[in-house]
Every structure is written in C-alpha cells, then in structure tokens.
Amino acid sequence: MEDRTPRRGGILTGLPLGQGGGEIWLRLALAAGIAVAIAGLLLRLPSGIMIAGLLLGLGMAALVSLQDLARLRRQAGAAAAASGAVAGEAEGDLFESLAVPLLQFDAAGGLIRANATARALLDLAPGDLPEPAGIFVDLGRPIRDWIVDVAQGRLPGGAEMAGLRGRSRGEEAERFLQVTLRPDGAGGALAILQDTTTIKRMEAQFAQGQKMQAIGQLAGGIAHDFNNLLTAISGHCDLLLLGRSADDPDHGDLLQIRQNANRAAALVAQLLAFSRKQTLKPERLDLAETLADLTHLLNRLLGEKVGLDLLHARAPVAIRADRRQLEQVMVNLVVNARDAMPEGGVVQIETRLERLEREVIRDRAILPRGEHVVIAVRDTGCGIGPEHMGKIFEPFYTTKRIGEGTGLGLSTAYGIVKQSGGFIFVSSTPGEGTEFELWFPQCSDLPAEPVAAPAARRGARRSDAVVLLVEDEVPVRTFAARALRLRGLSVLEAANAEAALALLEDAALHVDVFVTDVVMPGLDGPGWVRQALERRPGVRTVFISGYAEESLSDDQARIPNSVFLPKPFSLTELTETVQAQLAA
Q1: 422, 307: one domain
Q2: Which of 77, 178, 254, 391 lies at a C-alpha separation of 20 to 30 Å from 309?
Q3: What CATH number corresponds to the domain at position 159?
C-alpha cells in the first residue's frame, strides 16, 4: 500500500501523476487539537491544462472537523456545559470562515445554514434558506430525498453528484456544481460544493470544436469528390459545345448543363469554405475602403425596404484577409439580416478597434490579448430563438422555408473567418434583432507600395509539345486528354504515379509538362514529380486537385516551375494554364 503520510510541509514528494493526473495530499490544522490529512485531485485536461481540485479535499476536512467537534460536544454532557458552549462557538466560527462552500441540512432535508463561501457562490443573502430544489436542478431525483437518505444513514458512504446545475440570482444565471453529501454527526447532512462551471465550459468548448472539426472533415471530403465529378461534367459539356453553333437545337440544353454545373461548383466552394480547406489569398485590407467598395452591391441586395448604415472606426483599421472571401462573408450576413426583416428596417455595419489587456473567454472561444478589429452586423428583425443558437453555423442548417436558403450562408462565413485567423460570435433576442461580430487581429503592416507588373513574357504557343497527364479518375483524365489534344498537344496518359514513373524510364521519351493530380492512391503527385525531376530537371508542372492549394503549398514550394489549377476547371482554363507553362 502507498505511504500517504504527509511529509515536508504537508505535501508528498514524488506525486504519482499519470497521463490523466493524480492525487495530492496535505496536512491541515483546523482547530486546537484537530489536524487531518486531506486529499485532492490534480487533473490533466486534453489541452494540457492542470487543474487542482483541492476544494473537495478541503471540504472533506471541514466535514471531519465538524463531526469531531460535534462528538466532543456530546461527550462533554451536562456536566461540562461551558465546554459545550465553547465547542459550539468554535464549530460555528469554523463553519462560517472556511473557504469551502458548505451547506448544512436537517434530518428532513431542510436547509439550516450556509457558510459565507456558499452564500457567495449561490448568491444567497445572510439568513436566506431556500428550498434545496430551488438551488439544484437536473438531478433526476429530488435533492431532498438524497439528503434524507444520507442523514438517516441509508447511504453510509454518503452521496456524490457531479454536473448539477445550480441556480443563482447573480449575473451568471447558471452554474455547474459538484455536490458531496455526508452525515454531519448530528442527525443531519453536510453538502460540500465545488464550482465546476469553468471545467464544464471547457468540456463543452472541446466537444463543440470536435464536432465542427468532424463536420468540416466530412464537408471537405465530399467537396473533393464532387469537384472530380463536376470537372468531368463541365469538361465534357465544353467538349460538346465546341462542335455546335448557337443554332444547334442541343446548344441551349448544353448551356443549361454547364450553368448548373457552375452553380454546383459554387456550392462545393461553400463547403470548402466551411471546412477551411479553400484557397485564400490574404492581403492587407483597409476596412473603410473595402466596405465602401461593397456598399453599392449591398444596397442592391437589401432592396428598397431595408436601409444600410455604415459606422466606421474613428481611426483607420486594417485586417489581413482574402478580399473576395471577406466580401462573401459580408454579403451572407447582410442577406440574412434582410431576410429577418420582411417588413423593412435598417442593417447597421460597424467597425471598431478593441484592445484586450488579457485573454477573454467568450462563447467557448478564447480571444487572445492584444488589438483586434471588430466588424459588427446588426439588424432589428425577428431574432434567433435560443433553440437554434447552437446550430446556426452547421452546414445545411436553416430555419427558412424550403427553397429560400441552402443553409450554407452562415457556415461559409464561419469557415472563412476561422481560416483567416478570426472569430465569429452571435447574440440575438427574439423579436428585437440579431448581431454578428467578426473579430480579426489588427494588421499593423503598412500599405504596400504599388509595383508595376513586369511585362508578360510571351513565348511561342507550341503545338508540338508533349504532356504527361497523371490522373486516377478516369472521367477527368479522359476529358483533360481530349482537351489538350484538341489544342494540338501530344498527351501521354497514366492512371497513377507508378505508371508515370515507368513511362519516364524510357530515356528517349521527351516530356515538356507534367499535369498531375495531387491526391492519388499510392504515391501522391508531389512525391512522384520530385523523383521524376531528379532525371528531368527542366520539366514544368501543373498540379490539379479538388482540395485547396493550401494542402499542397509546402510541397509545391519545394518543386520548381510548378503552378496549381483547382478543380473543377474548364477546357479553356486547363489549356491556357498548360500553354502558359510551355511559354514561360
């Protein structure tokens, strides 16, 4: 058995802390002649944060001391009334002054007293003795039944309940409490309280983050597969349109197919935005200029019934973000605000600078200290009910009627803001309106000096060049090969990296450009290209993928003369990209 005798100032040396934490022991003198060894927990959360749970140990020590004092008082008897009075006074002082929240109940489960720490925790006035059911909820069984069972000895070991919601009259209307019930030695029961609100919030934040990450991974995977399908659909549609004039009876049908394929591509782009796997091109954005450029479009979207009010920060504020994606976020939020005010109203957009002197926890997110730029979008519409608040950023979740929305507007905004290093918060009161706040790090970089673009190098558009096309999706490879051959290029096809490397073993084979998918079974695109360039260092490369360029950026940076073409791409985009590589 472990030696748990307190040593050296009361704390054991060599604490047995494992991956999840361990116990900590110390010795505490509570009153003259009374000293107890108490235990507490040292918890290691998934994030690595260590939380000491000594309060429970202190509470148990207080319980032991109060029981000892009650026993001493009973043993004194009538012959030692004076000693009993002293013991009673000591007990009362000890109960009141302990830094552990304590409640004492009688044998019937009624609240007798609460010490100062418990009153502060539960926002009780001195002498305020509410019903236990008015303090603790979500037990599944009346709290009074638990108290009576403990007081009457039907639960000799006491009872412990974690995760209770404690009602408070303060600003924070709800707390999570851990309650330990033990007999008090006088026929009643003592409750030791531990505020676990912070831990519960961290657990909820972790669970929410895990859920959104899982949804994002699913959305990103679906988007990749759909981009392959859309590349084949729109690509073969382009091939069919090449041989038909506007008078052809099938021309209009083919245009419809291409237009709807483009709409589907936009939908997939929104999924990629939510999953934070889209390609961003961040730049320094002065918000006053950016929003001013967007005003005309926003006014057109709002219509005649809804006005737009811009409130700019007194000093210029700037953030680092992708201009096109930020504009998409603002459009989504403004359209949502418009739809919430069918009878008309005003949408207000405000920018301001916020300086945080310390980390701030808000809506399960931790805002770091420093300067932040806030963009607030407010409306005076119908508001969002509390039952919807936890789901509004999930893809395809919408409260609109069928046909009025896809449920991707807010999830897209969420993904773009997160990928840009920011935070998005929402507050709403049903019947009064909604406010979305976007928090971004302040960009302190000076505006870049305009640099004249160098004259484009115009090389010959070669029609005798050889392209090695590597793509595991047969429909995509078929379309791409036909498109390149229509431009007079010679195309070698390979279904995977291993087949491509086998072709290149022929030293007599000349290749000008590699066109390769990034993610393939076996060796991926960057992997086989690096091997090929060891023998053919001058070949240029076009990477194609349904994933974002960010998933490739590190590998691409190590491969010279390479460019990225996202799927879905059109016939023209593919051929022009390859011709540009040939002409470079």
Answers
A1: yes
A2: 391
A3: 3.30.450.20
Question: Residue 47 pLDDT more than 50?
Answer: no
Residue 457 placed within a domain:
no
Residue-wise pLDDT for 187-206, tens only, equals 888 888 888 877 777 776 66
Amino acid 43 reads: L
Measured at the alpha carbon of residue 423, what is the angle toward residues 418 and 429, in degrees to the nearest 5? Answer: 125
pLDDT tens readout for residues 203-260: 766 666 666 666 666 666 677 778 888 888 888 888 888 878 888 888 888 888 888 8
Final residue before a domain boundary, out of 441, 476, 494: 441
CA distances from 66 to 116, 149, 231, 368 (A): 16, 20, 76, 44
Using a pLDDT cut of 90, give the percent of the chain over it: 22
C-alpha Rg value of the chain to the nearest Å: 34
Please tell me whether residues 309 and 425 are part of one structural domain: yes
Contact status, residue 96 vs residue 73, Cβ threshold 8 Å: no
The 3-class SS string of 364-387 reads CEEECCEEEEEEEEEECCCCCCHH
Give the closest residue to 526 by CA, choosing from 475, 477, 564. Answer: 564
Alpha carbon distance 145, 192 (integer Å):
17
Q: Which residues pair with 113 in a beta bridge?
A: 104
On the 0-12 / 13-18 / 19+ scale of CB atoms within 10 A, 525 is: buried
Pair (87, 117) in one structural domain? no
Strands in 345-356's sheet, in edge-to-edge order, are: 306-311, 345-356, 370-379, 433-441, 423-429
Which token pair is 37? 């060894």
Say which CATH number the domain at 472 has.
3.40.50.2300
Q: How far apart are CA 457 and CA 460, in angstroms?
A: 10
- 34-44 β-sheet, strand order: 21-31, 34-44, 50-53
- Residues in Cβ contact with 15 at an 8 Å cutoff, skipping those fewer than 6 apart: 22, 23, 24, 42
Residues 337 and 437 in one domain: yes
| Structural domain total, the chain | 5
- Does residue 81 sit within a domain? yes
Q: Which domain holds residue 579?
A: 466-583
Q: How confident is residue 456, by pLDDT bands cut at 50, 70 and 90?
A: very low
Cα–Cα distance for residue pair 258/239, rounded to 1 Å: 11
Pairing of strands 562-566, 540-545: parallel
Asked if 469 contacts 480 with a C-beta cutoff of 8 angstroms, the reply is: yes
Q: What is the CATH number of the domain that holds 408?
A: 3.30.565.10
Do both 289 and 405 map to the same domain? yes
> What tokens does 562 get?
């390479």
Residue 558, class by beta-carbon neighbours within 10 Å (0-12 exposed, 13-18 middle, 19+ buried)? Answer: exposed
User: Is the alpha carbon torsion for 106, 111, 117, 121 positive or negative?
Assistant: positive
In a domain, 456, yes or no: no
Question: Where is pLDDT greater, at 495 or 554?
Answer: 495
Please indicate, yes or no, whether residues 408 and 483 belong to a single structural domain of this protein: no
In a domain, 453, yes or no: no
